[in-house]
Write a structure and sequence with these properties.
Layout: H1 2-12, H2 14-27, H3 30-33, H4 39-57, H5 60-83, E1 88-89, H6 98-114, H7 116-120, H8 122-144, H9 147-160, H10 164-186, E2 190-191, E3 195-196, E4 200-204, H11 213-230, H12 232-247
Antiparallel strand pairs: 1-2, 3-4
Keywords: Membrane, Transmembrane, Transmembrane helix
Transmembrane segments: 9-27, 42-59, 66-88, 94-112, 124-140, 146-161, 168-187, 207-227
Length: 250
């Protein structure tokens, strides 16, 4: 029964998310361009429609975090893509479907990790996810000379080593972002240069680099920080309740 519930958690969150990534990015791909010249506009309509549907049904706490994810996503895209030239989109713009996409990815990972069945098997899932990350990371280093991605992943794993509460969430984000990047670069929706930031030649990079989820962590932490600043009293109350539960004698 526990296994069935765990599979249901995947089917309700990550599987639909992976399907949306594959289908949504296909609309903006060079493959779809041969059939229809306005795929990016269709993808934009689809992603915003899904965003507002989720926004309507979610509790107010998550609505607020989705809003923050869009704001931080816009700022991050302009900084890293147009400003620092870390990567470039197919039309050399920031597609309008990208900001709601950030928010949808964020909230799907949140709901996956708050599922009861996932929490019950957290340690097992962490080990499985970590094994996949290590295989992915090693393959990209050995066969794609992805030194940049190797260093980014090393930083991710180092940070999470002493963060047991957040570990599964960020492992989840790592794998979701890795899948997103593989699909997006395969479809040629965007591309990464052969070196980190285009000019750091001692840091060769794959297209995509394996550990790019490190930069997505800024979005996650930013959403949480903004929420805490807006709800300081409620956040401190929750922390006190959690502390009491952890220190309560058995």
């Amino acid at each position: 029964m526990n296994l069935i519930n765990m599979l249901k958690a995947f089917l309700k969150t990550l599987i639909p998310l992976f399907s949306l990534i594959a289908g949504g990015l296909y609309l903006d791909s060079v493959f779809f361009l041969d059939q229809f010249n306005h795929g990016q506009e269709v993808a934009t309509f689809l992603l915003w429609a899904i965003f507002f549907t989720l926004f309507y049904f979610l509790p107010s706490r998550y609505k607020e975090q989705m809003f923050y994810a869009v704001l931080i996503g816009v700022a991050g895209e302009y900084l890293f893509s147009l400003g620092l030239k870390m990567y470039q989109y197919r039309l050399e713009n920031i597609p309008h479907y990208i900001p709601p996409g950030h928010a949808i990815i964020y909230i799907a990972a949140v709901y996956f990790n708050k599922n009861t069945a996932i929490k019950l098997h957290q340690k097992l899932i962490e080990k499985i996810f970590l094994a996949i990350i290590i295989v992915f990371w090693t393959y990209f280093l050995l066969f794609k000379n992805d030194v940049f991605g190797f260093l980014l992943t090393a930083v991710v794993l180092y940070i999470l080593h002493n963060k047991p509460r957040e570990r599964l969430f960020y492992y989840t984000m790592y794998l979701v972002v890795a899948y997103l990047e593989l699909v997006g670069t395969f479809y040629k929706c965007w591309e990464w240069p052969p070196y980190a930031f285009r000019f750091i030649e001692f840091l060769p990079s794959a297209n995509p680099p394996s550990g790019i989820s490190l930069f997505y962590f800024g979005l996650d932490l930013g959403c949480l920080w903004l929420y805490k600043k807006r709800h300081t009293v409620a956040w401190n109350r929750m922390k006190n309740v959690r502390y009491i539960k952890l220190t309560k004698p058995l």
